[in-house]
Amino acid sequence: MTCIICPNSCQMTVEASGDTYNVTGHKCARGKAFAISEITNPTRTLCTTVKVNASYLPVISVKTSGPIPKNRLMDVMHVLHAITVNAPLTCGEVVVHDILGLGVDIVTTTSLSDISS
Amino acid sequence: MNRHDVIVIGGGPAGLAAAIAAHREGASTLLIEREARLGGILKQCIHDGFGLVHFKEQLTGPEYAERFIEACHQQGLQMLTLTFVTKIEKHGDIFIVSIVNRNGVSKHAAKSIVLATGCRERTAKQIFIHGTRPSGVFTAGTAQHYINLLGYMPTKQCVILGSGDIGLIMARRLTLEGAKVLGVYEAKATPSGLTRNIHQCLYDFDIPLHLSKTVTRVYGGDRLTGVEICAVDSQMNPLPETAEYIECDALILSVGLIPENELAETLSVKLDPKTKGPICNEDFMTSVDGVFTCGNALHVNDLVDYVSESGDIAGAAAAHYTQAPHSEITFHTGQNVAYIVPQQLSQKVTAEKTVLYFRSAKPIERCQLFIKVNNDIVYKKSYAFLKPPEMERLLFDFSALNLQSDDHVTFEIEEESHDLHHLSK
């Protein structure tokens, strides 16, 4: 598999025997952790936008505060399509707590002033 | 007229880093940005993967920019936004920068200039696609601007031409937002984007990648209704007998970036045909004394971390710039080297480490980079693989070599011979 943690894009091999995984081809500990997670429970950080009221831009960029299971990306997108947040917002503000019970928040990734400023 | 030591033009990642560096080195610095918000293209790059080199963590584009913007505010840097530079003139040792903004037209003087004007996307006009001129043909960056900043969906069902990173990222973004991406088509036999983006943007969403295929014609009246796809031969010529029609309402182009150097050219800055950015020395000073360059205006980068690094080097050098006679040694690109930045080295280089960026001309497994001075090898480094989409950076101390103006410095990449490869096994 190809590691997606950094641009090195290491080509890794995982050998599974029972509950132990032998990873080769990685150049760092994060790569090894990614390889095992990719076999057992593949996760991704979701970056998207949500609608925002009272600002000079109609959307604000957000992300999940941590990785979520890959097969739940579309479920989270569905929830985020339906919500609208209010400006002003600062970078890192939580706009949805514990989304879908996945244990991660939706946080803003930029600051956006309201229309008055 | 307002006087400054350094004027930085462009408030993206390169310009922000350059302005912070110039200010840090004690220069009175002015940063000029044409848009309302600082951050440049990072504002719309809402995906993560930025800052792994610089901050050792995964940030989104806006978060990465925010850190530099915060630093500018904290240091009380003088910044003008919604300000457009109309002209730069050199009068003796002084540059006069004409600007226009909401306060009208004015002029600012500076001892040195940093051009951090970024790059532009190649458009449909530059890749010779036949057919009508319907709406629905966008560059990937335009589609990204529509979705991530303006909240518009530009397509329901599209084809992406070109496998550059922005195209791959937009394939994922469009899919997440509910559009159908029918496929990514790449005329070359190898993808242009980073391998990790092929995986996390295409394979994660079952978007097919078609290599050695290109769009040859667009159809539609007011709006795009479909495209014609052809396979290409090894010379990149389309093969008409392979033509197929694909119905779609948008064609998204990710077919390369070109450094933006209109202002540089008005100053008669010499450009490198290989990088399409200015020819510069290790301080990123161009062929015009006192004019510095950095970021994507210098050469198209794949990582923002190195954009910031070049901005930092250029900004600090611009702060310390004094006019003095100097001579440069030219770096030559030998076999398998697509380009090297900087292209020149001051003969009296004093820095212990010079930052060098290069790309290989083709994908090569198991190879060695050599720096040769008059055919003597002064440096070599082995690589498991080199790919043109993935820029390499290295540090080298030229100061100890005591180079003379007639020394011939060459960068070469040599493939390890097949026989040796077998022996080593």
Automatic annotation (TrEMBL), chain A:
It holds the Pfam family DUF1667. The lineage of its organism: Bacteria, Bacillati, Bacillota, Clostridia, Eubacteriales. This is DUF1667 domain-containing protein. It comes from Fusibacter paucivorans. PANTHER family: DUF1667 DOMAIN-CONTAINING PROTEIN (PTHR39450:SF1), MOLYBDOPTERIN OXIDOREDUCTASE, 4FE-4S CLUSTER-BINDING SUBUNIT (PTHR39450). InterPro entries: CPE0013-like_sf, DUF1667.
From TrEMBL, chain B:
The keyword Repressor does not apply. InterPro entries: FAD/NAD-bd_sf, FAD/NAD-binding_dom, Metab_Enz_Cyan_OpOx_G3PDH. Keywords: Oxidoreductase. Residues 4-298 form the FAD/NAD(P)-binding domain. This is FAD-dependent oxidoreductase.
